[in-house]
Each structure stands twice: as C-alpha cells, then as structure tokens.
C-alpha cells in the first residue's frame, strides 16, 4: 500500500444559508486565529473560561450556577444534558422533526435497561420512555404537554424549543407550566434558539436542563463549546443517581469552568485539555451577543425573516415554518417534487441551502448572521435564479420592488 500526502486542504468561501451552521462572525474567526500558543492552564485561558461562564449566564438570563459549556457541538451539550437520565427512568419525549427525533433516540438509549439494549442495540425500545410523535410541520403545544404529563407522570419530559427539522417553534411556556404542575423535570433542546430568540431561562421554572450549540445563534463554528445550564434540582438528582459517563457528567465538566460543589471558584481545575483558540473564539462570540443585545438581535431576525418569507411567497412558494432564523417552504406546483434538485443546484455553486432531512422533502433557507439588506437580497436573488433555471415563473422586477419597498426606507441597510 502506498501512502500519499495529499495537497493542502483548501475550503472555499460559501454562503451558509441553511438551518446551521451560520456564517461564523469574522470577529470570532479573528479571535480564534490570533490566540497564542498556550497550554490549557495558562492564566488568561482560565480567566477567559470563567468570563465565558458569567457571560453565558447573562446571555441566557439565569442564575443557575451550573451554566457552562461542553467541548464539541450541539449533540455534545445534549448528551451532557441527557446524562442524568438513568436506565428505567420514566420519560416523556416529544418528537416533531429530525432533531427531536434524535433526542428521543438518545433518551431511549439512556433509559434502556441492559436487556433492552441487547435486544436492539442501535435503537433500544425502552419501555420507560414514551415518545409522542407530532406530525412534521406541526408544533408541540402546551395542551399536548399537559395531557401527556398528566397521564404518564414521568420523572423527565423532553421537548425541542425550536425544531429545526421543520422550522417550528414549540410551546416552551406551556411545556414548562405542565412540568411545574406535574412535578416533572423538563429538558430542552435549545440548539436553534439560543442567541436568536430573546428568552430567559429563569422565566421557565419547569425546565431543569438546557442544551444548545456554538454554531447557530452564537455564530461560533470553529469547534468550540455547546452551552448547557442546569437547575439545582437537576444537579441534586444527578448527585443521587450518578451517570454513566465521565466527560459528559455536568458535575465533573463544570469544574474546569470554576464551578465546584455548587459554588463559583476563582479558577478552574484541570479536567481535560481545553484549547485557547476555542476559548478565545467562544469568548468573542458571547461578547458579540451581549453587545448586540438579544432584544435587538431577535427583532432583527424577525424583520429579515419576514422579507425573505414574503419574497419566496411572491415567487409562489408556500412557507410552513415560524422560526425567525429559518424559512421552510414548498416549491410552487409547477416545480413541486423537485426540491432536492433545486437544493443540489444551489449547493453546487456555493449557495448552501438545505432540504429537510426527514420526509416530506421541503427546502430550508436560513439567515443566521445574515442580518442586513445586502445578505438577504443576495439570498433572494440566488434562490429566484435557481427557480428560473429549472423553468419556474420568476418575476425579477417584482422581487426587486419588494426588496426596495422593505429596505429602501425604514430598515437600515
Ligand atoms: C443543529 C441542531 C442539533 C445538532 O447540533 P450539532 O451542533 O450539529 O451537533 C440538535 N438539535 C437541534 C434542534 C438543532 O437545530
């Protein structure tokens, strides 16, 4: 066998206009690439991690001491959040799309008994987990949560805040209230909503655990940190049960962020080797979020999503989503069924939109960190062009008129 040295890997600049990752902010990349070579216990890195912890509490509106971040992607944070779920634990999980479906699988993996694992190792059918399937494109409502929790009386209940698979917002208020009423510990996949929507953890007392990601609302793709937050109730349960993991156990993992025995300490302790580059990037992304302010940023998402939504509607598409960072749509009748082809054509030229990953096939166009006239106009034009190329009816003048009427006066470019 010959061993080849390949040419240096070059990755082109594309327009990341999908559900995530979003375009990493240049400030974040700058912080990432200008960090010096330093070991993981160097003083500024440890200080940076402590500052991240405090900024994260501020961004997320919480006094939960166990608010920190887990090295990796969104799934790393989610795995950490699910670590306190033990074999045989009673769980109710809502599945209304690709991501909550994988979350529900994770919960079945965590709650399955050894016999259940042996019977179906990759898809254990844990009898203690009730998965409530909500059809694609529909939200989880407070009523659904109330009914299911009243009936099953679980220890844990799970829901995605924003289901990115179908672009739907689930009823966090109703879910949290149902958890409080039935004394259930709520777990939330907030991967898509953190840094986009203006909400505060401490307004939702039914939720015991939260997990998010770096690459969506925080505009921080360079493999960094997935934010998590846990109430004292969650940590108390974890202390009693333990967890079948070292590196994703929140109690161990929080130590490097300066949380020991439920207390903030001045310095993190060695736990595993964190990267100064990642810490610098994450730190900058949190500074950026706080400087923007979530109220302003979330309003900006709504404004620009509305322009994109109205533009694709003018093109004859039917929008079925209600997230502010993402538009999920069906093509007009004359192009129906060719969604995947259109997505592939766009991706081939560096316009990175996405199909849905579970049936039915729809198109997903995201605007993460694209909050200005130029970026949204570019997305609209590229999409219209792709439709026209496939033989769709496209009135470019009408599209330009719409962009001008929305951006010409009131909204700053
Ligand atoms: C993107 C996403 C995930 C997965 O996050 P990764 O960073 O890709 O690991 C999980 N849940 C939801 C709701 C998501 O949108």
UniProtKB/TrEMBL annotation:
Cofactor(s) demanded:
pyridoxal 5'-phosphate
Q: Does Transferase count among this protein's keywords?
A: yes
Q: Name one GO molecular function term.
A: transaminase activity
Q: Which domain of life is it from?
A: Bacteria
- Presence of the UniProt keyword Zinc in the record: no
Q: Which InterPro entries match?
A: PyrdxlP-dep_Trfase, PyrdxlP-dep_Trfase_major, PyrdxlP-dep_Trfase_small, SP_NH2Trfase/AEP_transaminase
Keyword entries, A-Z: Aminotransferase, Pyridoxal phosphate, Transferase
Protein name, per record: Alanine--glyoxylate aminotransferase family protein
């Amino acid at each position: 066998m010959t061993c080849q040295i390949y040419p240096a890997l070059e990755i082109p600049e594309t327009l990341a206009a999908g559900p995530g990752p979003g375009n990493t902010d240049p400030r974040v990349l700058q912080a990432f690439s200008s960090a010096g070579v330093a070991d993981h216990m160097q003083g500024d890195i440890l200080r940076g991690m402590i500052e991240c912890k405090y900024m994260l509490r501020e961004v997320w509106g919480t006094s939960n001491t166990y608010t920190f971040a887990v090295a990796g992607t969104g799934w790393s944070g989610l795995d950490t959040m699910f670590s306190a779920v033990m074999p045989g634990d009673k769980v109710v999980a809502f599945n209304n799309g690709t991501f909550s479906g994988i979350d529900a699988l994770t919960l079945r993996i965590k709650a399955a008994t050894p016999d259940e694992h042996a019977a179906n190792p990759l898809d254990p059918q844990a009898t203690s987990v009730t998965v409530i399937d909500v059809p694609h494109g529909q939200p989880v409502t407070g009523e659904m949560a109330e009914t299911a929790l009243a009936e099953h009386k679980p220890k844990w209940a799970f829901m995605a805040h924003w289901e990115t698979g179908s672009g739907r917002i689930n009823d966090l208020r109703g879910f949290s209230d149902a958890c409080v009423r039935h004394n259930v510990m709520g777990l939330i996949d907030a991967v898509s909503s953190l840094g986009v929507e203006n909400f505060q953890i401490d307004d939702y007392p039914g939720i015991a655990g939260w997990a998010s990601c770096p690459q969506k609302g925080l505009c921080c793709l360079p493999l960094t940190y997935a934010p998590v937050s846990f109430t004292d109730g969650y940590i108390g349960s974890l202390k009693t049960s333990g967890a079948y993991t070292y590196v994703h156990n929140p109690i161990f993992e929080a130590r490097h962020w300066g949380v020991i025995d439920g207390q903030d300490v001045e310095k993190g302790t060695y736990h595993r080797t964190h990267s100064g580059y990642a810490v610098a990037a994450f730190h900058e992304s949190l500074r950026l979020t706080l400087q923007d302010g979530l109220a302003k940023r979330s309003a900006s998402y709504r404004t620009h999503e509305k322009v994109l939504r109205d533009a694709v509607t003018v093109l004859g598409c039917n929008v079925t989503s209600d997230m502010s960072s993402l538009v999920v749509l069906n093509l007009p009748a004359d192009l129906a069924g060719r969604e995947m082809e259109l997505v592939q054509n766009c991706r081939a030229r560096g316009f990175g939109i996405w199909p849905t990953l579970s049936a039915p096939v729809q198109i997903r166009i995201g605007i993460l960190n694209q909050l200005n006239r130029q970026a949204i106009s570019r997305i609209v034009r590229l999409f219209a062009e792709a439709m026209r190329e496939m033989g769709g009816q496209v009135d470019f003048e009408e599209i330009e008129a719409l962009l001008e009427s929305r951006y010409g006066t009131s909204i700053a470019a």
